[in-house]
Amino acid sequence: MRRANKKKVSTCIPVLSFFTGGGFLDIGFEMAGFYSIWTNETNRVFANLYAYGMTHWRQSVFTQSRPATISTTRDIEHLFAPEIIRQAFPGGRQRFFGIIGGPPCPDFSNGGKNAGGKGINGRLTKTFINRILKIQPPFFVFENVAGLYRTKQHREFLSALEGRLESHSYCLDLKILNALEVGVPQNRERLFIVGIKRDYACRCLGRLIDAKEREWFPWPVKRKYKGARTRFKWPCIVTNGNCPELPEDIPIELTVQSVLNPENCPSQIQNGKDTFNAYSPKFSIIKEGDTTRKSFKRLHRYRFSPTACYGNNEVHLHPWLKRRLSVREAMRIQGIPDSYVLPEDASLSSKFAVVSNGVPVPLAYEVAKELNHLLNKGGFIG
């Protein structure tokens, strides 16, 4: 995903980013040829972290990159379509643009309260869809937890939203994707929904498409990693205290060793030494690879990481050192580029929270890349 030459912002497809957080969904899309021209994040601490990190990352990727900033921290329940359009397009609304966003997911998560669409966070999902229907972008990408699709009561809520989008001429496709299957050393499933206006979709596909048709979007598939969670014989808990060996058939890039290896110098990069002090005896007694408990999970160097969920009473321990992961190590497990850095004076809790709340960057990139290719077929790019 690294680019040898810097890109010009003017050649990118504009998108409006809702629930921006630290900007990791945005990074994936910007790597694939899109550019966030408007952003929204109500958490002011996250907004400041976004501004700092995104500015540093963009300077490494784009020519003539201006400092990044969150466009508005207002709640979208009180921020309506006309104002959003005025903020995003001060010179007049553009013809071709998109919307991306991942509404807060606790109300649909297996580890949450399952409040669904009636919960405080769940209602924001409906509000997000309302904004899409009012703004009417040619395309959008929606991201959330897999429970929104898999849990029966949440699936009914989602189906109602799908019906509304279809009634407004959006062709939809849905897919649960695992970051592990695109080469990220983390078992993290996310639901993605891609919506494209029917006339645009038909032009991109070169055929008519039915309102209820699914499986038309070219979802990313990397055969090398397909079914990786169950396909490979992953090593078990290390009980003898010795250094384990890498099984021959496991791709090293799917292991936490690939991002924590001292030869990759995570400790020498900004945020590489940002970690909480080791205060608990659990740091010494928990065996490498023991991720069975709710918290204090010690990663195995030759396994993938469980879903990054730092904070919220969950602690992930370094495989061979008696401490928690550092912020930089957590960022690498999320696929966040090393050129994205967080300010030294920000609290550790806020750094871990913004990192774990985001989408793994390579997963966002793979979806965005396929969307870019599809839009290119329709002649909407270049």
Q: Quick summary of this structure?
A:
The chain has 382 residues and is α/β, with parallel strands linked by helices. The chain has helices spanning 24-31, 44-61, 81-88, 120-135, 147-150, 152-167, 198-205, 228-231, 257-260, 282-285, 327-333, 348-357, 361-377, and strands spanning 7-8, 13-18, 34-39, 62-63, 98-101, 139-144, 170-178, 189-197, 297-298, 316-317. The mean pLDDT is 92.
Low-confidence stretches: none
Q: Please name the CATH architecture of the domain at 7-226 and 360-377.
A: 3-Layer(aba) Sandwich
Instruction: Write down how many β-strands occur, each being a DSSP E stretch of 2 or more residues.
Output: 10
User: Would you identify the CATH H-level superfamily of the domain at 7-226 and 360-377?
Assistant: Vaccinia Virus protein VP39
| Strand order in space, largest sheet | 3-2-5-6-8-7
Beta-strand proportion: 5-15%
The main sheet comes to: 6 strands, mixed
CATH topology of the domain at 7-226 and 360-377: Rossmann fold
Distance between the termini: 20 Å
Could you give the order of the helices and strands?
A: EEHEHEHEHEHHEEHHHHEEHHH
General form: globular
Percent of residues in helices: 25-40%
